[in-house]
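Notes from the 1:1 (GR / supervisor)

We went over the backlog. Supervisor wanted to see one worked example end to end before approving the batch request, so GR pasted a single chain during the call. The sequence is below; no edits were made to it. Supervisor asked that the structure be written out right there so they could see what the output format looks like.
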Amino acid sequence: MQRIPALVEKTAALLDHSLPLEPGDVIVNEAYLGPGYGIITPAARDAIVTVARLEGIFLDQVYTGKTMAGLIDLARRGEIARGATVVFWHTGGTPGLFGHPEDFRIGVSQ
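Structure output shown during the call:
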């Protein structure tokens, strides 16, 4: 968990910007991991399809899809305040989508 503030600090320095973090600014929530590494969850599938359709951004089923599913759920439940600033760090992994086409059969009952 201490790696995240260090990465934020280094990234801010690269951008020649100050981004101080307060205790509690970084929260690690493992509730959206699902049954295992690389195993897509229904919520992650929905998040991946929704973000692709609305924003043209492709998320992967291992990390960013599950993370976005969690972000959407937390926002819907009001745990993230309306108007709050949230940084979603897309870490890549998009090529993994193409290795699992069965996870994204649009129009087919899941």
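Supervisor's comment: DSSP finds three helices and no strands in the chain.
Batch request approved.
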